[in-house]
Amino acid sequence: MDSFGRRHVMKVLTEEMEHGSVDLLGELEDNDCRDTVQLHKEEKTLLRYYLFEGLRYIWLARKGSFCRASVLNENWTRKDLHSFQKGLSPLEQSLRKRMYGPNLIDVPVKPYVQMLFEEVLNPFYVFQAFSITLWLVDKYYFYAICIFIISIFSIGISLHEIRKQSITLRNMAQFVTNVTIRRNSGVEECVSSEELVPGDCVIIPPEGLLLPCDAALLAGECLVNESMLTGESVPVLKTPLPTGDGGYSSETERRHTLFCGTHLILAKGGGASAVAVVTSTGFFTAKGSLVSSIMHPQPTDFRFYKDSAKFLLLLGFVAFMGTIYSIVVLFKSNVTWWELVIRSLDLVTIAVPPALPAAITTGTIHAQRRLKKQGIFCVSPPRINICGKISLFCFDKTGTLTEEGLDVWGVMEGGAAGFSELVPDPSLLAPGPMLSGLACCHTVTLLQGQPLGDPLELKMVESTGWTLQEPEGNGDALDSEFGGHRVLAVVKPLSQSTSTGQAVAIVRRFPFSSALQRMSVVTVAHGGHSALAFLKGSPEMVAGLCRAETVPQQFSSKLRSFSSEGLRVLALACKPVDERTDLGTIEREEVEKELQFLGFLMLKNLVKPESAGVINVLRLANLRSAMVTGDNILTAVNVAKTCGMVGVDEKVIFVNATPPTAQSMPTLEFSLEGDRATAGQTAIVPQRLYQNGFDYHLAINGKSFAALCNHFPECLPKVLLRATVFARMAPDQKTQLVKELQKLNYRVGMCGDGANDCGALRAADVGVSLSEAEASVASPFTSKTEDISCVPLLIREGRCSLVTSFSLFRYMSLYSLIQFCSVLVLYTVRTTLADLQFLFCDLFVVTLLAIVMGRGGPSGELHPHRPSASLLALPVLGSLLLHTGMVVLGQLAALFITTSQDWYVPLNSTVFGVANLPNMENTSVFSLSAFQYIIMAVVVTKGYPHKKPLFYNWIFLCLLIVLFALTTWLVLYPGPFAGHQLQLHNFLDMDFKMLLVAVAALNFLVCFLVEVLVDKGILNCLRSLRGRRQSKKQYKRLNVLLCESPLWPPLNETMSPTEHTVIHCS
Description:
Elements: E1 13-16, H1 21-28, H2 31-37, E2 46-52, E3 55-60, E4 65-68, H3 78-83, H4 90-100, H5 112-120, H6 123-137, H7 141-173, E5 178-182, E6 188-192, E7 201-204, E8 214-219, E9 221-225, H8 227-230, E10 236-238, E11 257-258, E12 263-268, E13 274-280, H9 286-295, H10 303-332, H11 337-351, H12 356-359, H13 362-373, E14 376-378, H14 382-387, E15 392-395, E16 407-415, E17 418-419, H15 433-440, E18 445-447, E19 450-452, H16 455-464, E20 466-469, H17 476-481, E21 489-493, E22 504-513, E23 518-525, E24 532-537, H18 539-545, H19 555-564, E25 567-576, H20 588-591, E26 596-604, H21 609-620, E27 624-628, H22 633-643, E28 651-658, E29 667-672, H23 679-682, H24 684-691, E30 696-701, H25 702-711, H26 716-722, E31 723-727, H27 731-743, E32 748-752, H28 758-763, E33 766-770, E34 781-783, H29 790-828, H30 835-853, H31 874-899, H32 920-940, H33 954-972, H34 975-981, H35 990-1015, H36 1020-1026, H37 1034-1043
Parallel strand pairs: 15-27, 15-32, 27-31, 28-30, 30-31, 32-33, 33-34
Antiparallel strand pairs: 1-2, 2-3, 3-4, 5-6, 5-7, 7-13, 8-11, 8-13, 9-10, 9-12, 14-34, 16-17, 16-26, 18-19, 20-21, 21-22, 22-23, 23-24, 24-25, 25-26, 28-29
Helix pairs in contact: 1-2, 6-7, 6-11, 7-30, 10-11, 10-29, 13-29, 15-16, 19-22, 29-31, 29-32, 30-32, 30-33, 31-32, 31-35, 32-33, 32-35
Family: Belongs to the cation transport ATPase (P-type) (TC 3.A.3) family. Type V subfamily.
Pfam families: Cation_ATPase, Cation_ATPase_N, E1-E2_ATPase
GO cellular component, one term: late endosome membrane
């Protein structure tokens, strides 16, 4: 059973292992691996495994089950990884390759023969084959051959597109190169990347490479472009994995992990080559996991797709009832049993249109093409329709809502005596720890002499006026100048660029971690003296790592003041390090404690000009927006106000939840922004907020979110319903937030710029990555636009596609019902439609209209009401029923008008079916039904409010005019050739033929009026008979309950888990 609850049957494979491999493997791994190969205590040692979605599952006897091969190395520690620097022996490498398989992300491209066989077995084509066989038996040769040719053409296009997509994905996923690995003998050997296994020691060349596996960096530093994998456009500096006994995880150690598919731009080993140890290969890598998610996507839980199958069953029931009626009519007509069976089965092929599933995808195809022209690329087309039902969109802040780059706003030094005056320009600071910290505490590197790194750090270093220098060659010269320490980089004042008198060397880096919210470096002065550790990060985190007496008393008030102005605030700290310590191997935990607080660095992060407009568009469309950021909560609130997420007359309430400690219970408190009310004033606040109609927004940080999830789960849905700002959120918390919102039945969109947002982008119903990388697999949608203006466009295209899919579904259903009614009416009078009459309607009218119907583009604005996604809703079923009734009445009217004419001659009642052609009844019913196919195409094609009006789709409009003119010509004056080919009766009475056209016009007016009335909600009166029902969406039911709860949230009250108010949603 897979992660989606689907069951699969897999073939178990066996492989013989080398003699003596059991003992060797026992030395390498734990006992589980020994159980893996000791399945049969015979002369041969066998490995049992199977492959599923590219992953290898091996049998572990101790666990009594098949487990992923990655389980063999999931408990590796940092110490284990560092021990692999000596390299593997050839025998060890061979054995591991047997266990893990080749290092390939192999996207299979099936041969055309296999694809054809699988495609033909699709239920759609099986039904087509049944229909064609039936028509051939019934001697509908021309029609059957035409449909056969169309089906072959359709299959050919489908196979070409599938194979093209598979080849594109394979080219993006599969990569084989030569790499240099170290053997345990010390010899460096060049091998194919297919041969790599976990534990291999890889030597990274200085010029870098495209990495074919996941690896932990053990020595040297690497500048990596991860845009293909994460969508993050800024190169990332990777540093060596610290030593120690702690466990290793690629997610928590991202800054020390080189991921498969990423481009290593530059590798620096400080005189030696950079070294990494392979941790994952093939589909077990991060890239392999993403490719697998594309190849085997999560089943789309979308109502439209579910209702499509149910609706086909409904049409099947209609076909069954029609079949019973036709059997009765045919039996009374004394037809043969063979003809009775053929005629009855023919009705099934009419009532259930086999082209329906293919037709409804045309709207999505057109939308995908339009999006590509706008610079939005989609790797999961079914999600385009889901975009039309988005009810909440989450946005990252930095780089998404705000500019990627920041401008330094000022520096304020602080200490035990308090804060000094604000210094607008850091270069004006007096020489000292604060200035050195600003110049040193970063991961900026040089590429061809140009500084490269995080935009924030680039601005910070630039503001100090210091220059950056990196070692050249083996770096021995710089190392000797700075006491023999391995120098990573040197920073010095610009005025001293020719000497090293005031230069500071960076000898150890601990890169920024989103989970830790900080980074640090260790530096030494000239001669290796004055070793200092500098730390930079979020003010709350930095203050917690400093000695309490060094943190100014005004810390909180100053931080609140700066953050409230929308400034990005960072804090810096430092401490001296014992020079006798081995600075190259010092642990991060040792560096980042007992620090001295230095002060604040403030940066101005401007909101992008487009952000406020987009948020306003979403708000006017009743689409909720939320901010999910790793920044300070007050800064986030300020940005939320600036971009319009929080209105000027709306209040912000902070949610503060704390986990339990040894001395206290977990607590939950709601406090109004800027509220310092006394107890008497506090009682007035709820009344002002809730009873006088003030809107409010909740704001919560990552720590409170975690405590809320763990200790106040009953309050979590209510907070999620009202929260707009989620600050200091770690990457895994962003993913958790999206999933919790989905539990409330929100359709969640997520927009970010990659990296820390990747998990949330993939978890969301619609993930949009703002990236220059067209081939990014970070999310279903990738936009080359650098702002969030792509979001309304995507929603508009989603709504347009969904409405188009609805229109096509209804049109194909009505087409089958029109033809179904025509055949039943004609069966009743002992005749039927001719072969070419079927072909004319199916091929030249319906197929052409269905193809071009989906070309209409989206409306220019977002409407407050989202389109429906239910095909079984009352308006849809009601309109179909009413239109079917109008169709039947129209065809019967045409028939009765014909039989009431003075010149009417009844058909030959001694024969049945095509033997009676041509005749008056057939011609009148066929003529009106031909008009009805065109009429319904106009009636069900929706324009306002989610699509452009009909006249914008000029191809569709021209086709309607041509088909209407052609049908009118066939009714009024078909001519001898067309009349003979279509087996039409030649009516001589022009008044009668004009009357048929008038009946068709009346049919159009009535159907159009019915559709307008249904759109206006005339069928809603039927809902009043059953009484008002609660919404099926949990967030809507919860919103009603909260609106009826005037004192929630209780302000300035500390609640424990047993005290909070519970509002249940059943």
